[in-house]
Amino acid sequence: MSILRIIAQHKFKKIFNAGWSSKEAFLKFLDAWKFADPLPTVKNKCKFSVIEVNGWKMFCFAPKNNTKQNNNVFYYFNGSAYVMEVGTIHYAYFIRLVRKLGITLYCPIVPVYKHDGKNINRTELYDCVVQCYKKILERHKPEDISIGGDSSGGGLALLAPTLLKENKLPLPKRLLLVNPLDDCNLVGYKPQNPSGKYIFPKAGLEAAIEIYAGKTSLNDPYVSPYFSDFSILPHTYLFYGTYDEALVGLEKLRNKLQKTNKLTGLYIYKKCFHDFFVTPIPETFKYIRDLKTIINS
CB 3.0 to 4.6 Å from 207: which of 26, 110, 151, 244, for a disulfide? Predict the structure, then answer.
């Protein structure tokens, strides 16, 4: 394993390991987690604006230099364990995507991150997903739009076509699913690295899912989009690393996408952990080059 990968894994462990070690630890971690103001991170690195959508906010990131901007749009759901607000690490990642790919990226601040420690208003969440997409359609053609997300946001991206179809909206050109958590049952979730130690402990993730799902069955397709109708999906691309704790579930998703003839592209990064792409390791830049090839196709 490269030195950069070791350092990145160590930083992730330092942030998440103790705070996710039990349900009680996670709830304390969650109480301490604060919404991050994007402006200090953005500075002069890209264009940034806030779009108001029916009382919700949607952040827009675009290249600072118009000559480097193309028509490609990324409607992106950040991963934050279902119930955590977007953090600085994702803003830096968005800026990297915008600058390297020349895209416009929209990130809705979805109400999944408003919680009372007991449950989530998922009806409001689904409405936010749809209404923000409508706002994007006022500016862009559906054939220029990719919907994507990472981790829990990747699961939400997988559900998005179902929500859009229910509202009779045109689907995007493609789905870009980055180590998505698409099944809240967490089948086979365990350490995959040689040390056998978690980066994102299962106990913390289970506590987050308990808040997110409430009393709804984890097999409900609106909670676990793995159980949704894949026949309606547009071209779908799947990205993940072989050291991801959710590897078993990701391979299960890959198999279903293949069986339903919906997997257009599969990108696997050896020895990479969950959410590796927000860190400045060589595989991150390989991932971004892969994205560039896809959106320019």
Answer: 26
